[in-house]
Automatic annotation (TrEMBL):
Protein name as catalogued: Uncharacterized protein
Organism: Oryzomonas sagensis
Taxonomy of the source species: Bacteria, Pseudomonadati, Thermodesulfobacteriota, Desulfuromonadia, Geobacterales
Region of interest: Disordered: 1-20
Length: 77
């Protein structure tokens, strides 16, 4: 089995592929710090966070972890 992990600074890596069994598996990874950078203040005490084209309103920046996991990301701390 062979894995390729793209090197990208500051953004989710995404789109890594693992092959060797006749099928490809998409592995999406992101650093927690990179995700936090994308949570911007909304001017009302919360944050707007956008991932894969979908925007979320957050009360706390720590909510990005659950959202990224619901999109299938593996979070790297």
């Amino acid at each position: 089995m062979c894995a390729t992990w793209p090197q990208r600074s500051g953004k989710p890596a995404g789109n890594s592929k693992i092959s060797g069994t006749g099928e490809e598996i998409m592995v999406k990874t992101a650093t927690f710090e990179a995700l936090l950078e994308d949570a911007v203040p909304d001017g009302k005490g919360g944050y707007i966070f956008t991932l894969e084209g979908k925007s979320y309103t957050l009360k706390d920046k720590d909510e990005v972890r659950g959202i990224a996991e619901s999109h299938g990301y593996i979070i790297i701390y």
